[in-house]
Amino acid sequence: MYAVSLRAQIKDGRIDELKEFIKNSALPTLEVPGMISIGFFNPDENTNLGMAFLANKEAADIFAEERNKNLMQVADVFASFPKVVEGEITLGKMYQDRPANDTEDAFVRVVFAKVDNSDAPTNFVKEKIFPIYEEAEGLRGAGFFVSDGEAVSWNIWDSEEAANAVVPKFNEQLTNAEGIFSEDPQPYSGYLYAGKNFIDVQKT
Q1: Which of 29, 38, 87, 181 has its CA at 20 to 30 Å from residue 118's CA atom?
Q2: Does the predicted model carry a pTM greater than 0.90?
């Protein structure tokens, strides 16, 4: 499976305009062959973050074409051009069955970290972070990949309260992660304001 993350800084006062465009105009055009799920949230009033999950790189390339068409239509709202990080998912698990067209609220955490290689951070997440997931309540799914010197980790929850219950455990492990990340990991979180499962997603 393949993941694509998109981070964008938005000009002051333009975030609502972008959200309406994504909900009403962009989402219907992004249902490309191989698209599994997509979601967007605002970690703060000037940041927009989206993640998409696709069957493979070929589907991601088609998605990129449609995504770029949409970005050009709203280019004026961005303070800088959105940053894309994408790659094959190296660690991932679904903890709940979620149906296509799921309409329940979802709280998402995405963490980005600069890295010098892929092995050390992958092993760290596998050995220290995924065991925390296994014991968590309200977790829907989680995953991880490294691409172009950046590690991307995400987890999707039933609620902010469920996520916050385990954040201290993540932070405790990160205090012992010296030398794994070249910069302090940067977390982003928020409730999805737009998104869709295009197929039934099953527990793994």
Answers
A1: 38
A2: yes
